[in-house]
Amino acid sequence: MTDSYRDGQLRSAWRLVVLVILASSVTYLLREIPARQAMAPPGAVESAEIRLADGDPRYFQAHTGGALPTFHPEEIAGQIKRVAAARGVPAASVRQMVNALIVNNPDIDISTLNQALDSRWPNR
What we know:
The longest helix has 37 residues, at 3-39. The termini are far apart. Helices cover 69% and strands 3% of the residues. The protein has two domains: 1-39; 42-120, no CATH class. It has seven helices and two strands; from the N terminus they run H-H-H-E-E-H-H-H-H. By secondary structure, the chain is mainly alpha-helical. Keywords: Membrane, Transmembrane, Transmembrane helix. The chain crosses the membrane at residues 12-30.
């Protein structure tokens, strides 16, 4: 074999390696972007809905530090009496609903909690 033949094979091999890396990167991005969008919590899409609920005593309120509303269970516990009184239902019932939702889904967001309130006690 001559040096030019070996150089040609080496260049072809490197081209193939670069092509495989590029194809892998494109495939990863095409798969990852929709997956990340699907993983976004409902609050990321429904932030306008949450802003509309701000100040309404019938709903739990979240601290918005950007696009995603966040809360800590302690913050929700502190709001149960207010929400229950505004809806005219026992605080124990609201607490039970919240606890059941958080136990079944520790990553639950504020929109889901408020939607559960509306489902359980509509128009109150």
